[in-house]
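step: validate -> pass
step: tokenize input -> pass
step: predict -> running
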Amino acid sequence: MKIGVFDSGIGGLSTLHQIMHTLPDEEYIFYADVDHVPYGEKTKEEVLSYVDEAVGFMVKQNCKAIVLACNTATSVAITPMRQKYKLPIIGIEPAVKPAVMHHGDKRIMVIATPITAREVKLRKLIDRFDTEGNVDVVPMPGLVRLAQNCEFESDKVMEYLKEAFKGYDLNNYSELVLGCTHYNYFKDSYARIFPNGIEMVDGNQGVANNLKNILKTCGIINLEAPKEKEEVKYYYSGRLLSDKDELQKIKMLHERLEEMLRL
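step: predict -> pass
step: emit ->
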């Protein structure tokens, strides 16, 4: 049985990449809903219907657990998905807690999609850990489209980031919370804009650890790789990906994510 990892697009590859480091003996399905990306600009009702379709697809593929590697999907759909389906469904959320623990005497910036930034779930998360009011939330919808176009270090990216951050004194921040899995591809670009010493945090390691613990508790973890292991099957909105150029693109994205893990 496989583990399903779902996102609106290629952002969830960053979660998959971390999970594969943590659970190397498992097999995976990755589902990118490229027909409807970006989710952050959709209505809650639309997002819920897209997530339901994707989760239903992965259940039919006999997945033993599913990860919603999308902050927007998690904020909108995690509760109804858990109510509807019986297998473990793990969500992701902005890593506010570790950022608050590390921020010292400086502020924390959370960058997120518009829908995640608006959701009560994020506000409750911030209120739970940020008792001193040190967190600022900045919606950044344009980064998802740039990531989907594999545009990570261009002048266009730098101009977008500078425009998005122009109302903030970046010297006041020690923590940058990446509240969308698409944002992980831009770590080197953030480092060029923020002063030295900015710490970039995301929820991927937490999700990987949570998934590992749940699989152990349920007794469904693979303790060794299958004899004929097929690491990942990739699907674009339910269509099995077989195009060599697209598969090469995904390989390139994994290579970039490996580089970003070192930053």
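step: describe -> The chain has a mean pLDDT of 94.
step: cleanup -> pass
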